[in-house]
Amino acid sequence: MGAPGGERSSRGERPPPARAALLSGLRRHLFASPSSALATLLVGGGLLALLPRAVHWLFTGAVYRADYDACRALAYSAACWGFVAEKHRLILFGRYPYAEQWRPLVATLLVLLTLFVSAHPRAWRRGLLLLWALVLIAFLLFMGGGAAGLSRVEPAEWGGFPLTVILTVVGVAASIPLGIVLALGRRSRLPLARGACTLYIELVRGVPLITVLFVASFVFPLLMPGGLKLDVLTRITLGITLFQAAYMAEVIRGGLQALPRGQFEAAAALGLSSWQTQAKVILPQALVLVIPSLVNSLLSTFMDTSLVTVVSLYDLTGSLRLALGDPRWRNFFLEGYLFVGALYFVCCLAMSRYSQWLERRLGRWIRRPEARPA
Amino acid sequence: MKDPMIELAGVNKWFGRFHVLVDIDLLVGRGERIVVCGPSGSGKSTLIRLVNRLEEHQEGRILVDGVLLTDDLRAIERIRREVGMVFQSFNLFPHLTALENVALAPTFVLGLPRAEALERAAQQLARVRIADQAHKHPGQLSGGQQQRVAIARALCMQPKIMLFDEPTSALDPEMVKEVLDVMLELAAQGMTMVVVTHEMGFARQVADRVIFMDEGRIVEENPPAEFFAHPRNERTRDFLAKVLPR
Question: What ipTM was reported for this prediction?
Answer without folding.
Answer: 0.93
